[in-house]
Amino acid sequence: MRLSSLALSLFLAGSVLAGPAGAFLQRRLETLAELADQTDDQSRSRFARQIEELFDLQAFANAVLVDLNISAAEETQLRGLLSTLVVSEMRLKLLDAGPLELSSEHSSDHGTIVTTSSEEVSIDFVMQPYLEGSFQVIDIITDDESLAKTYKYEINMLYTRGGIEDVITKLRKKIDQLDAEAAGGQD
Q1: How many whole angstroms from its chain centre is CA 98?
Q2: Over 50: is that where the pLDDT of 93 sits?
């Protein structure tokens, strides 16, 4: 199992450096790490709910879909697929990352950036205040690549080449691929 040590030893040792966004993210990541390693339906459902609470999926979808000229029904369908895609992407990222350590927290034009890292990867969480004392992630950046910008580019390319049906088909395949990768690494 990739996460055998993560569920028990996830630590964001830089919590002394953490401001409110980092401290909030630390608590959420600890819960997510425990759930990401579980394969039962109830844990997977709890993981998805936790991601949906942590991420501002509305803002994420707005950033991704901004340039598409699609119907309201198509937009609703794409928003649902994007939400599922973010859940699958985050599960795989947490499984692959191993124990994360809080590296820094700083403000930017886009929000508060909380940087976490492991031996495998560095992940920046772009966060904005939500309700009193809480935050929501509006984007994640890995290897200097914004997830929202990457998906926006890929979806726009698919839409230009093959229309909305091609986008929907490819998003479903991507979700299946991510879920298979996550499941494959847990044997």
Answers
A1: 15
A2: yes
Query: Greater confidence, 69 or 6?
Result: 69
Cβ neighbours of residue 85 closer than 8 Å, sequence gap 6 or more: 151, 171, 174, 175, 178
**Burial readout 14-36 (b: 16 or more C-beta within 10 A, e: otherwise):** beeebeebbbbbbebbeebbbbb
Q: What fold characterizes domain 4-177?
A: Nuclear Transport Factor 2; Chain: A, (3.10.450)
φ/ψ of 66, rounded to 5, equals -55, -35
Q: Which of 63, 135, 133, 60 is nearest to 90 (CA)?
A: 60
Q: How far is CA 27 from CA 23, 111, 125, 135, in A?
A: 7, 19, 14, 12
Contact 68, 137 (CB under 8 A): no
Residue with tokens 């991510």: 178
Mean pLDDT over 147-156 rounds to 95
Answer for the pair 111, 100: CB distance below 8 angstroms, yes or no.
no
How much of the chain exceeds pLDDT 90, in percent?
57
